[in-house]
Amino acid sequence: MAARVLPGSDCRVRRGRRHDLGAVRTLLGTDDVPPKLFRRLLADLGADVYVAEDPGGTVVGLVSVAYARSLMQGGGAALLDGARASHAPVLDGLIAFAEERARRRGCRRLAAWVAPEDGALRAALLRRGYHPGELLTADLAAAR
Question: Residue 27: how many CB atoms within 10 A of its CB?
Answer without folding.
Answer: 20
